[in-house]
Specification:
This protein has 302 residues and is an alpha+beta fold. The chain is 43% helix and 13% strand. The chain has 13 helices and five strands.
Length: 302
């Protein structure tokens, strides 16, 4: 029978760091709930299971640890857990490398010197010049908390001129969850929203003491039901490339391949670029937007 003990609840209070114990507890329980006994080669003794997914004792058996030890970990007490035990639990839960790393960050956070919370992220001037030379290629640099730090003219033509927004609003999470025009821009809005939440979850694992991240999560949790739903899934993944379909208010449908590159010297920043397939309608549409220059950013919905 599944123990019914009190669990810390992972809530985000604006201005306060996320509760690391609650984050670890909810993450493990959410992952355990996704696995069924038959998924991992265990017998299922009847249909009347009182918990979704695996029981604690079943997961402990798979990981080769005692039930009491795993229970303490799932209650958020990961202070003395070894890397070997985390590896065993990650294998039992069938975690990907990215999700395994997230678990490690939650259970054994690195001791880092605290940086001033109010200090804004800076983009090297040479990177800004690089963006300007990428003529015809929509490109931008995104940092922690999904903040949009720098972009070129083509990115403004495709996604809207972020220069018109206050700095605090230049944030993918706020744009996607709080702006109706961005809901219209992305053909698969749900997938874009999932990608944003997964990225924020990774940030929360790496930087649980970031009050600005907690404030962002708290704000979005209050203002967006969709964000609350996706945040509760505890999904984590890193998407470095793929296809993004847009409905641009001036040129219509765009199908763009994107690539994301972590920047050396600052792993919290990524360069994201978009390009169309050769000789495709989307390539012609990008050329059209480039020829319009500043007029391309004056879309009715922006």
């Amino acid at each position: 029978m599944e123990p019914r003990d009190e669990q810390p609840q992972a809530t985000a209070t604006p201005g306060r760091p996320l509760d690391r114990r609650a984050e670890l507890s909810e993450f493990l329980r959410s992952r355990r709930a996704r696995l069924k006994p038959e998924d991992v080669g265990l017998p299922d003794f009847g249909r009347h299971r009182r918990v979704p997914g695996l029981r604690r004792e079943e997961l402990a058996q798979l990981a080769g640890v005692s039930v009491a030890y795993y229970t303490r970990l799932e209650q958020g007490n990961g202070r003395n857990v070894s890397a070997e035990v985390l590896d065993s639990i990650a294998r039992a839960l069938r975690l990907t490398d990215a999700v395994h790393a997230h678990l490690t960050h939650l259970a054994k956070p690195k001791s880092l010197k605290k940086k001033p919370a109010a200090r804004r992220q800076q983009v090297r001037p040479s990177l800004c010049r690089l963006l300007d030379t990428m003529d015809g290629v929509p490109a931008y640099i995104v940092g922690r908390r999904a903040e949009i730090l720098a972009w070129n003219r083509m990115a403004a033509a495709v996604f809207g001129d972020w220069a018109d927004l206050p700095a605090v609003e230049r944030n993918w999470a706020r744009l996607v969850f709080l702006r109706p025009d961005y809901r219209d821009l992305f053909v698969d809005w749900e997938q874009k929203a999932i990608d944003i939440v997964c990225a924020l979850r990774m940030d929360a694992g790496c930087h649980p003491d970031d009050p600005r991240l907690s404030a962002l999560v708290g704000e979005l949790s209050v203002k967006s039901e969709e964000f609350r739903r996706l945040w509760a899934t505890h999904d984590v993944k890193e998407k470095s490339h793929g296809l993004k379909r847009l409905h641009h208010p001036l040129v219509g449908e765009l199908s763009l391949n994107f690539e994301s590159f972590r920047l050396t010297g600052d792993a919290d920043q990524s360069l994201v670029t978009y390009h169309a397939d050769p000789a495709s309608p989307s390539e012609e549409s990008l050329r059209l937007l480039a020829s319009w220059g500043a007029d391309a950013t004056r879309a009715p919905t922006r």
